[in-house]
Amino acid sequence: AAVPASASGVLLVDRAAIAENYRILKAAFLEKAVAAVVKADGYGLGAEQIVPSLVRAGARSFFVAQLDEALKLRPLLDRCHPAIALYVLNGLTPGTETLFADNTILPVLNSLGEIEAWSRFAQQRGTAQPAAIHLDSGMCRLGLPPDAVERLRGNPGALDGIVPTCILSHLACAEEPDNPKNAEQLAYLKQALTALPRAPVSFCNSSGIFLGRDYHFDLGRPGVALYGVNPTPAAPNPMRPVVRLLARILQIRAIDAPQTV
Ligand SMILES: *Cc1c(COP(=O)(O)O)cnc(C)c1O
């Protein structure tokens, strides 16, 4: 590959390497189901260019951050495969219920308020509505905090009309295998899951997959490792490189003191 004359640089994205990274992660996840996180336009590499390769490699669940990203990807995913689950991590913003349901996009419910809104919507429509439920096990960013989980335990009717297709939680320090936070989050998650109906559990981001089978549960949820970033920073990178930056050398100059640059 060369830099075209009209450009001073080119970023090359190797889609075959992304597909190979999906297979490497799936093998590390002991061949259980692995979703693909393609938020932020596929970590800046172009979600629409990447998604078909991931579907061909076997991905059947996708995660984005925002509903707008999901609305853009839904028709493409439908053309790739008839049964792709598409989740929005940022959750159910007020008034978006119809957009989610009519486009077969699944909200990740992050609070009791979102659970209440989705349950009410299901009852209004008269049909059960699928969704993921996000438990915060220590990341302290999004998801139900422990007190909300305990309120759900005491009031399972709050989930009426909701079909949980996935219960997810996010590791805060998985790239540090010796960090005690990992085991703390795992122990809390196991305890919190007893407050919820049974559903496939998704706990592992890229680095989490390499913490071993105790952390795996049912569905892997890697992002950055698909794109070649090392999920095990203390060890050699098991991923294939995906991105190559070529830049044109504009000029080479020979200079010497007292010249300055
Ligand atoms: C970004 C994100 C992921 C993917 O994490 P990586 O570290 O990029 O593998 C998984 N789950 C959630 C909730 C995220 O926000």
Rg for CA atoms = 21 Å
Instruction: Report the major sheet.
Output: 7 strands, parallel
Q: Biggest sheet, strands in spatial order?
A: 3-4-5-6-7-8-9
Instruction: Please tell me the overall pLDDT.
Output: 97
Total number of strands: 11
Distance between the termini: 31 Å
Q: Note poorly predicted spans.
A: none
Helix % is: 25-40%
Global outline = globular
Strand content: 15-25%
Q: Could you give the order of the helices and strands?
A: EHEEHHEHEHEHEHEHEHEE
Query: Which structural class best describes the helix and strand composition?
Result: alpha/beta
- Ligand types: pyridoxal-5'-phosphate
Topology:
Blueprint: E1 9-13, H1 15-28, E2 33-34, E3 36-37, H2 39-43, H3 47-57, E4 61-64, H4 67-80, E5 85-88, H5 97-102, E6 106-109, H6 112-125, E7 129-134, H7 146-154, E8 162-168, H8 180-193, E9 201-202, H9 206-209, E10 219-220, E11 243-247
Parallel strand pairs: 2-10, 3-4, 4-5, 5-6, 6-7, 7-8, 8-9
Antiparallel strand pairs: 1-11
Helix pairs in contact: 1-3, 3-4
Bound molecules: pyridoxal-5'-phosphate.
Write structural notes for this entry.
- It is a single chain.
- The chain has 261 residues and is of the alpha/beta class.
- It is globular, with a radius of gyration of 21 Å.
- It is built from nine helices and eleven strands.
- The model has no long low-confidence stretch (mean pLDDT 97).
- The strands form three sheets. Strands 3-4-5-6-7-8-9 form a seven-stranded parallel beta sheet.
- Strand 4, helix 4 and strand 5 form a beta-alpha-beta unit.
- Bound molecules: pyridoxal-5'-phosphate.
- Pyridoxal-5'-phosphate (PLP) binds next to loops.
